[in-house]
Write a structure and sequence with these properties.
Two copies of one chain form a homodimer.
Chain A (H helix, E strand, L loop, with lengths): L54 E8 L8 E7 L9 E4 L15 E3 L12 E5 L5 H4 L2 H8 L4 E5 H11 L9 E5 L5 E3 L2 E7 L8 E7 L2 E5 L17 H10 L2 E7 L12 H14 L4 E4 L5 H13 L3 E5 L1 H12 L10 E2 L12 E5 L9 H6 L13 E4 L8 H13 L3 E3 L14 H11 L3 E5 L3 H13 L14 E6 L3 E7 L5 E4 L2 E2 L4 H13 L1 E8 L6 E10 L8 H20 L6 H20 L4 E8 L1
Parallel strand pairs in A: 3-5, 5-6, 6-7, 11-12, 12-19, 13-16, 13-17, 14-15, 14-16, 17-18, 24-26
Antiparallel strand pairs in A: 1-2, 1-20, 2-3, 4-22, 8-9, 9-10, 10-11, 20-21, 22-23, 24-25
């Protein structure tokens, strides 16, 4: 397989860097740093020559080194064609911040390389309604301009629209409904779709026909031939792709490429859930994601079958269920859904509570119930809490904390460690292999996952009969070039660094701001305010000290007293030796001596900020 | 089973709160807050009456609501006896800080309740050499006084001694070597020991004989009847405990009480490891804990058998192996251990690197190797990296980051998801059941684990034939009273809140300091320095602003300019209306108005600190 950093020796490199490096674009969206990144800086090669042949540039902006912020665009290049430069964007997702990004709300893809080509964007296609595919829309669509059309299925569109309400000022989107049978002509690209099973209905994969061949983007998928409840798999269309041939590149979901075997069918999960629901001798409280609409649908149907009432706790979950019902993706008797306050009128075994917060989120429904902060629901002995979603890496501790709270309140807890009732919306290795065998692509490009997941997906590709040179593992931002002659990685990288969203700011939190936040969080801050008589150069009064997050001030009076002495001495000694006084130098000396003193006394390194005021 | 918060109705409560609440003790070790704790404040009941009968108070100071900071003491109470008040302490471990404790090094048990009883402490017994059992020794032993003897096996002692070197000034400990055959008379308590298998050699469980019966503390254990490499199980001694009878309470390890079935034998793990070592076609880099001495021993022996050289990377790992070799717990030909620099002289398949850092720790050997920051080791294609330890909750993201780096550098990675080669040092449910069946205790008290683990251990107890009233689930700090007549939870709680170690400070970081650190880490700090003419009450010059971690200052000039206007206006308007001026009020107004302004512009809430200087 071809590796990002080195050109495969068995296979000559194609002409590359077609458009080459561009000057940095000044835009409201800026680049930030790449978390934890230490490998050598990515090269930006100058253009070698403008190629003669038509080709497609595949530009992944996110989702190739993480789970999240999925976004890519395909650009058709043929100077002789009227469609030269046409672009189609696929997905626009967010990523949740990492541990070393305090205060950051989330991360969105970097669209710096797209901005100068705004006029060429023929459309943005969204594969399904999950945040790692739709979450960046409110932040990025306004940058791309009011006229760019956005295409998605009905359910996906409705959830995108609902989310826009949370943003002010509201930005109206150019929304266009498709079905899995729609054919779209977007400049050089003719798009068609195929339904996939995942864990939200109305999920689709995309086929992009171009003059140099066809490209397939699976979106998130599993191959569930037994259940349509969480997305209807159109297997015949997928088989037809392989039969018709000419699939240049298959871009396929790697989220579960680490897992061997086949993914569970929703039917299996339904059987497990039914056993739990049927046998529950008390209330059942099921924690899951608001976006797992397939799962929610199953539970509501099973509740109906077993004559139980359902309470829905969590605003986003209520919204999503309402949307899905309105669009016909969920069918249930509305009388079976009751409000939390009404639940006490029923026997406990007749109640199922669906709640958000299975990741241990502080303010979500499940934590409020466990904490006795919910206005009408509390855990009572006999309750069974089911975690019906796997734990997102990084959330293990909060889930454990929540579990302990639930046990303490007297609940039984069933989680994914005990029963296989977790999400399971992504293809595992044998499903990925089958997808390759059905689609018969000329090249495989694993997408959607950490680098190691892409590599494992590549191994599956080899087992499916592909040769190493038919597998392309790119990094975020790395341009892949596909022509009739060749499909290959280039050494051209467009900006793909993290763009962090913090409050109203998109991309304005730079590395230095985050570094300061981390430093502040570890040992706090120590501000020394010194008033100096500009004639005598003596410190007036006692220096003021403001400190937060460093030591408990009430019990540190002696330390502060000593620090005042150090401050006075450092300023008077340093300034006394100079004429004229270089106050910047005095401040530096003060910072250094004070920092050393504080470290020697506490082994902590607060951020020391000296303020010197001459009067 | 009996639950901490409510007295079991089926079983009458014994006389309780024997000694009752004591006045708070002033000491250098202070209490801090309990993370994430929201349940109602624990009660402290007044003493009811001094009981007539002899009894033992079991006081768990840590380890009953978490994995870590294991420590408890047993106190003999019989006013008629010369041994009245005698105390034995078991273990003195640390806990790693949680996500909401930035800057904290670790957490140690709260010994406030022990300090006034210092004179009565007959000894501190340490069960084995892991940090969650020994880690608080350097911080707490000095508080207990120079004369308190500490007892442990040779290997445990040597590791405790080595660790003391890291602390300055050094505090000499009163160290006393025991073997698993030692019998110790410590006041009212006669202690004997039994060897257990775990994952470090020389691990023991403790039997405490008292006038009112015997108490058994398992320490960490598994029941490995096939291998002695990670602690020699003395099964006959355990069986003899049950045969002789009169075991009032079995305090037993709950770390793996969530896991069904039996724990693996080290022999199984060895077979897996041997297959990997034998089949490795390139270098093998094995990441594990420095403290997993059993695992390290296995690998070094297997390397010898397969004629491979071993490189040991990581100071703590080298120290521990050297100690284990010196004491005869590891036997190997020293020529087989080579330095990293020498490894290039051998064929790759002849090299095994043992490295610390399998949890993705930033500065540990494995990360430095992956980052190309190691002076003589780099990943090369053909290397296989084995993660031979399970991931500690909270470290999943760093382990994923490390895995991605290793794949990127061209290594193959084998981790516990693929093969069962992880730690496995703790009894699983069937082992716990067997332990209960062998020891035949009158009461079971699950220890060492989160609350939910203790509850699952209790269920195992029921399966082992115990009645609910024979099972005691206590919280940290909750006193358990054991007499000839009864063993029961009381409502008496001694202080057990977190004591945080930060640099040289033990317990001096209070809740307010941590709250400030969190606030600083999320939105930074904004200091406004205003010089006011004390006569005109006008602001002189332009107010100074110092800000860190809030916005990127270079791109926020307009915001800062507007802020200066707000500051000037707030100060002059507020002060102008007062005579005399209440500067505290002016500061409050300034803080409020400035905070509102900054939030309206950014939706961030930096900590706003106003400084007003009158001249």
């Amino acid at each position: 397989m071809m590796i990002a950093k080195t050109q495969d020796r068995r296979h000559p490199a194609p002409a590359r860097g077609l458009r080459g490096a561009r000057p940095r674009i000044s835009s409201p969206v800026h680049t930030a740093f790449r978390s934890g990144e230490t490998r050598s800086k990515k090269p930006r090669t100058a253009p070698i020559a403008t190629p003669k042949y038509a080709h497609v540039r595949i530009v992944p902006l996110g989702g190739l080194e993480e789970v999240g912020r999925n976004m890519m665009y395909l650009e058709y290049v043929d100077p002789k064609s009227a469609n030269h430069g046409d672009i189609v964007v696929i997905d626009m997702g967010l990523q949740f911040p990492e541990d070393n990004m305090p205060g950051i709300d989330y991360i969105v893809p970097n669209i710096e390389s797209l901005l100068p080509k705004r006029e060429h964007i023929k459309g943005v296609v969204i594969t399904h309604a999950h945040y790692d595919h739709i979450g960046a829309i409110p932040h990025l669509m306004p940058e791309l301009g009011r006229n760019v059309p956005l295409y998605a299925t009905d359910l996906t569109l409705a959830i995108i629209e609902k989310r826009q309400e949370d943003f002010h000022p509201p930005h109206s989107l150019n929304l266009n409904k498709i079905s899995s049978d729609t054919v779209l002509k977007l400049g050089a690209f003719e798009l068609s779709f195929f339904g996939v099973s995942h864990n939200v209905p109305a999920s689709v994969g995309v086929v992009l026909r171009t003059p140099i061949g066809r490209f397939v983007h699976t979106g998130d998928f599993k191959l569930d031939v037994r259940s349509d409840i969480a997305g209807k798999l159109e297997l015949e269309k997928i088989k037809e792709l392989g039969r018709a041939g000419d699939i240049r590149v298959l871009m396929s979901d790697s989220t579960n490429a680490r897992e061997t075997g086949h993914q569970f069918s929703e039917t299996d999960i339904q059987i497990e859930m039914e056993a739990i629901i049927k046998n529950a001798k008390g209330r059942l409280i099921i924690g899951t994601f608001a976006s797992l609409l397939g799962r929610l649908n199953e539970i509501i149907q099973l509740a109906e079958r077993h004559k139980k009432k359902v309470v829905i706790e969590g605003r986003s979950m209520r919204n999503n269920i309402e949307i899905a019902r309105r669009l016909g993706y969920m069918k249930f008797d509305e009388k079976n859904i009751i409000r939390a306050e009404e639940s006490s009128k029923y026997l406990p075994e007749k109640i199922i509570v669906l709640a958000t917060g299975a990741q241990g989120e502080d303010r979500a429904a499940l934590m409020r119930i466990a904490n006795r902060q919910h206005r009408s629901l509390q855990i009572q002995p006999g309750d069974t809490v089911v975690f019906s979603s796997s734990v997102i890496p990084g959330n293990e501790r909060s889930v454990q904390l929540l579990t302990d709270k639930l046990y303490r309140e007297g609940a039984e807890v069933i989680n994914y460690r005990m029963l296989d009732i977790h999400a399971g919306g992504h293809a595992k290795q044998e499903d990925l292999k089958l997808m390759i065998e059905l689609v018969k692509p000329q090249f495989l490009m694993p997408i959607e996952g950490n680098h190691s997941f892409l590599k494992m997906h590549a191994k599956v590709g080899l087992r499916a009969g592909l040769k190493p040179e038919q597998i392309i593992i790119a990094d975020n931002g790395q341009v892949v070039e596909a022509s009739r002659e060749q499909v290959a990685l280039t050494k051209e990288y467009v900006p793909s660094s993290y763009v962090m969203v913090d409050g109203l700011g998109v991309g304005d939190v730079k590395e230095v701001v985050l570094r300061d936040r981390k430093m502040l969080s570890e040992d706090g801050i120590f501000v020394a305010i010194v008033i100096v008589d500009s004639e005598t150069l003596k410190v007036r009064n006692s220096p003021d000290i403001i400190s937060r997050g460093f030591v408990y001030l009430r019990e540190s009076k002696e330390l502060l007293q000593q620090a005042r002495g150090i401050i006075r001495k450092a300023v008077e000694e340093t300034a006394g030796k100079m004429s004229p006084v270089n106050w910047t130098y005095v401040k530096d000396m003060l910072r250094e001596r004070l920092g050393e003193f504080l470290f020697s006394k506490t082994q902590r390194r607060p951020m020391v900020l000296p303020v010197i005021i001459e009067v």
